[in-house]
Specification:
This protein has about 300 residues and is of the alpha/beta class. It has a single domain, classed as Metallo-beta-lactamase, Chain A (4-Layer Sandwich), CATH 3.60.15. It is about 25% helix and about 25% strand. It has ten helices and 16 strands. The protein has a seven-stranded mixed sheet. Strands 7-8-9-12-13-14-15 form a seven-stranded mixed sheet. Strand 2 and strand 3 form a beta hairpin. Helix 9 runs parallel beside helix 10. It binds zinc ion (2 copies). The site of one zinc ion has 4 residues, from loops.
């Protein structure tokens, strides 16, 4: 299960009633934050999610509306008693930028930087995969995956004479030896099962890497900076994506559901474009600040 909360829907600057775009994910008591613009810590408090459980923060790029809130957030986490390290993932520029932003605050725990070049990351059962997108500075999107183990077949394990204490290893995908015999997971597990997947990517033109990453995801959170077709040229020049472009990209990717966010401060009338978007792709909608969702495995019931 993956809990998702969209902390804001704004781009460029926070507005009364509209926080800057950032996403909070929670899985098994651990949280991952994606982006941290000015005021993100206020949004976290507003939507009643703890900042204490944030173990990892992923940054898409170093524009101010995505990073300027980090010093306040880390400082507040320290004030609330955090002592465990926080991991930060981002493009190469993220470490010098955050180090400078944090000169004015005291952070009483270790901050461990990772660059997106390191490949994929595993945090408490969530696999994080960064991928490059097409903005006016280096920018990355992130895919988050939670794998699901195949069904374990105890009757087969019993029939093969495998002791019960070896079952969990087999279920996790390890082979075991009993006496002289070796048993492999495929002997006692059913077919593979679909996991949970989510993609977050703002500040980009439509691009192949985003479309590929969003293939068949449960939720795509992406940018719809404008709804007005007259602003399409401006979006192109500033390397952003309109709501219509995002709806088409989500359709091509086969995302199960998509939320649009990172609205221009001038874009206030999302309602006027709901039909436009639905005509392109009915699984896309304009997100609102504080939107949340729990993504379950297929056929899983909420606990
Ligand atoms: Zn932005
Ligand atoms: Zn940007």
């Amino acid at each position: 299960m993956l809990d998702v909360c969209l902390l804001g829907t704004g781009g460029m600057m926070p507005l009364p009633g509209r926080h800057l775009t950032a996403l909070l994910l929670r899985h098994q008591g651990h949280s991952i934050l994606v982006d941290c613009g000015e005021g993100t810590q206020v949004a976290i408090r507003k939507y009643a999610w703890s900042m204490h459980s944030i173990d990892c923060i992923c940054f898409t790029h170093v524009h101010g509306d995505h990073v300027a809130g980090i010093s306040g957030l880390l400082s507040s986490m320290g004030t609330e008693g955090r002592t465990e390290p926080v991991h930060i993932i981002g493009p190469a520029q993220i470490e010098p930028v955050i180090s400078h932003l944090c000169i004015v605050v005291a952070v009483p725990f270790d901050v461990i930087f990772h660059t997106v070049d390191e490949g994929t990351f595993d945090f408490f059962g969530v696999t994080i995969t960064p991928f490059p997108v097409n903005h006016n500075i280096t920018c990355y999107g992130y895919r988050f995956d939670i794998d699901r183990l195949p069904v374990f077949l105890p009757d087969r394990a019993k029939a093969l004479g495998i002791p019960v204490q070896e079952w969990s290893k087999l279920q996790k995908g390890e082979s075991v030896r009993v006496g002289l015999k070796k048993f492999t997971p495929d002997q006692v597990r059913g077919p593979s099962r679909r996991g949970i997947s989510l993609v977050y990517s703002t500040d980009t033109r439509p691009c192949r890497s985003l479309e590929d990453a969003a293939y068949d995801v449960d939720l795509l959170v992406t940018e719809g900076i404008y709804g007005d077709p007259d602003k399409a040229q401006s979006a192109k020049e500033k390397k952003h994506m309109t709501a219509q472009e995002a709806a088409l990209l989500a359709k091509n990717a086969g995302a199960r559901e998509s939320w649009l966010t990172h609205y221009s401060p001038s874009f206030r009338n999302q309602r006027d474009y709901v039909r436009d978007i639905a005509a392109i792709n009915p699984t896309v909608r304009f997100a609102r600040d504080g939107d949340r969702k729990t993504i379950l495995f297929d056929d899983q019931e909420e606990e």
